[in-house]
Amino acid sequence: MLCRSSSLLLTCSLYLTVSANLTEQVAAYPNNFNVLSMSIRGISNAIVPDDKWNKQDINTVYIGQKMAQYNYGIINVQEDFNYHATLYKYDNHPFRTATSGGYLVGSGLNTLSNYSWIDFIRGFTFMRVRMDEGVYIDMINLRVNDASTTGPDDQKARRLKIHQLADFIETNSAGNAVIVFGDTGSRYTRCAPFLPSPIFLNFELGNSTSRGDNIRSFAAQNGLVDAWVQAIGGDPPIARAEPNVCPGGVPPNISCEVGDKVLYRGSPIIDLKSTGFFYDTSRFLSPKENLLTDHNPVRVEFGYLLKDGLRQSDLYGGPHGTWFNDLPSISVDSKLTSITLRGGNRLDGLTLTLASGQTFTHGGSGGKAHSLNLTSGEYIESVKLCWGQKDRHTRIFYSQAIKNSGQDIQVGKVTGNCATATAPSGYGVVGTYGQDGNEVDQLGFIYAQL
């Protein structure tokens, strides 16, 4: 991935000590879920025979049982290597990623979820989780080298990985709500102090041999809120201050900092808020009250509601092509004046024009064009889509756009897999989002209130 520089402006302030029981907030949001990030130390005793965590085969049984018992919404695990099958045997979440392999082969990153997803990418892992109809949150799992490693090469590698992830989110999650939860290996006390200069940017983002973690610039570049920082009062620890490392055993409160973090943002459609932050270490103890892993499991409670004025449809098609999203360029008062579909055997491309003059074009330029102009009081009420396989990729084969007057245009060929995206009452199509290339691979619609 290419690396790019990005400036940041985050104020460092005093580190606040907050008791864990003060992080509970009254959930003012009608839709609630939680996430858990947990490094499970799933390394075989045969590989590391002198490891003090030499009972992970048994501990993984307990971990799986606890995950099922507390019914977490979405769980990101790290270091899930040699006891992966055991973890899945004793957990009961319906949606799970397949293992990428054991220690020294796989990434150790996996997800167990009560929610389905439509796109999935490995490296760090990225998935677009469907919370409800037209409600998607991009969720990312990662494990960067451990926070206890502080050598210049370790820090440089950590900065580079974090910066690459920031660039990925900027490109592939444009307009979307995002939750990043995993082992960042980063601490705010190891960040560089803010200096608005190119020298600082190199220092912070990992483009030189200078030291320091870049978790602050990661949050700033992508508009992310750290749920732990929010829970302790809103101000991260001072850069270069003495780190407040969590003690051994069960932390007495959440004032200590760990490298396992949860960062999030909403979108122009989704108002997403953290309503509670917890170290769930006390939940993950053996029957003899021993720790089951060497990391504190991090749980964050979330609530969300849909903002007034804009809505989205579900996404249809396949996980191929390049991500696009018109949402950042759309306002609640946007009005559609024309729509053009281009296609022959499939939907090659489409163009939407707003009353403001803003034009959105996606897909390729091939195919015959069919257009609908909209006058006052007219709007696109529904769009039928069909999809199928072309060159082993799922693509949109057919599209029919229908005005509220009944007039329509259509291109492509109907397949056995079709769905109709219908605008909510009082809304009309004003934009699209999905994935494209020379044709359209995946498509959903953005609606504005009439």
TrEMBL record:
GO molecular function, one term: phosphatase activity
CDD domains found in the cross-reference section: Jacalin_EEP (cd09615)
Secretion signal, residue range per the UniProt entry: 1-28
Keyword Ribosomal protein listed: no
Residue ranges occupied by any Jacalin-type lectin domain in the UniProt entry: 310-449
UniProt keyword Signal present: yes
Keywords: Signal
InterPro entries: Endo/exonu/phosph_ase_sf, IPPc, Jacalin-like_lectin_dom, Jacalin-like_lectin_dom_sf
GO biological process, one term: phosphatidylinositol dephosphorylation
UniProt superkingdom: Eukaryota
Pfam families assigned to the protein according to its UniProt record, in alphabetical order: Exo_endo_phos2 (PF22669), Jacalin (PF01419)
Protein name per the record: Jacalin-type lectin domain-containing protein
Gene source species: Rhizoctonia solani
